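name: query_chain
kind: protein
chains: 1
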Amino acid sequence: MLGSRTLFTVPTPPMIDLTDLRKSYERAQLSEEASDADPLRQFERWLGEALAAQIPEANAMTLATVGADQRPSTRVVLIKGYDSHGITWFTNYDSRKGRELAINPWAALQFHWVELERVVRIEGSVSKVSAEESDAYFASRPLDSRIGAWASPQSQVIAHRGVLVANAARYGAQFLLQPPRPPHWGGYRLRPECWEFWQGRKSRLHDRLRYRLDSEQRWRRERLAP
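structure:
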């Protein structure tokens, strides 16, 4: 008919069926007797085994923070140190995670070593490391990474990638081979108050050991149901 219009509907692509994706975890087990009474030593043992197994990015950990809007957000960062004082990483203080930590200095970390069927979760308070510690680590980074810390206004909207390239060229010309640490860049340290070690087991009867500080600041180990 003249003037009539034929309406076409765009078919919705079929969704991927994920219901049958599953794996039986049977590599190892985690018992109270075999685990260390100190969660830091247990973490060091598992981290060492992940590195020895040459797991890709074994030092990668998910960092979860909560901002003023009470909405959680996550991103992957790299652990750069650990000791009795806590877990350390470095980043841009003006990034979203930096702004959220300034408002709410509590966070959670998670390591997921898929090949070993293991997860480590850590929760605690977060504070900035000293300027001296940040300076020392910054100086150890490759030159392009040090320039990149200046070039990227992390988490801010930019018009296009050319902005980053132009910034890198400008700061490279300005600082040459000796870029100082930007005032907006440095380290954080999470001081654990709770650790959880998860080992996948058959039939979904996984092993979960949690360590938490008691009122006397001693680590209490307890088993959680999977």
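note: The mean pLDDT is 94.
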